[in-house]
Amino acid sequence: MILVIYENTNRNTKFTKSIFWVGYVEEIRRDLLNLTKEELKSVAERYNSKVPQPLNSQFPDRVKKSTAVDQYTQRKERETTNLYPAGEVIINNK
Known about the structure:
- It is a single chain.
- By secondary structure, the chain is an alpha+beta fold.
- The protein has helices at 23-34, 37-49, 65-77; strands spanning 3-7, 17-21.
- The longest helix has 13 residues, at 37-49.
- It is elongated and about 90 Å long.
- The termini are far apart.
């Protein structure tokens, strides 16, 4: 691991020094360049098996987009029911 200390020259910030660990980048680079194609393929398969299913597959009763657009336009074309006008409140102060 490599420790990098970055000193901030902007005095308006709360922290003037930041610490970064960048050794993991070197490890990733070494692994990518030293593995064989078969090993890379097995690693990719292992991580791809952990990827969750897309969210749209979790909602089987989801309406198709074209149907939803048609329903939306029909809803907007409908006439809305006019409500009674707001009444006045009269308070008798005797």
